[in-house]
Amino acid sequence: MLRRPLALAVALSLSGLVSADAKKDAPKWDVNAAHGPVKQVKFTTDEGTWMDLDVSRDGRTLVFSLLGDLYTLPIAGGAATRITSGPAWDGQPRFSPDGAEIAFTSDRGGGNNLWRAKRDGSGATQVSKEDYRLLNNPVWTPDGQYLIGRKHFTSERSLGAGELWMYHRSGGAGLQLTKKKNDQQDLGEPAISADGRYVYFSEDVSGGNTFEYNKNPHGVIYAIRRLDRETGEIETIVATPGGAVRPQPSPDGKTLAFVKRVADKSVLHVIDLASGEVKPLWDGLSHDQQEGWAVFGPYANYQWLPDSSAVVIWAQGKLWRVDATTGAPTAIPFSASVEQTVAAPLRFEQTLDAGEFTARMIRDVATSPDGRSIVFHAVGQLWTRTLPDGRPRRLTARADAFEYQPSFSADGKKLLYTTWNDAKQGAIVERDVASGSERVLTTQPGFYYSPRYSRDGSKIVWSKQSGSSLTGSLNSGEQGIWWMPVAGGAAKRIAKDGYEPQFTADGGRVTFLTGGGLSKKLQSVGLHGEEPRDVFSLKYTDFVSVSPDGQWVAFTELFNAYLAPMPKTGGVIELGKDTTAVPVAKISADVGSYLHWAHDGSAVHWMVGDQYFTRQLKDAFAFVPGAPAKLPDAKALKGITIGLRVPVDTPKEIVAFTNARIVSMKGEEVIDRGTVLV
Question: Cis link prior to 451 (omega < 30° from 0)?
Answer without folding.
Answer: no
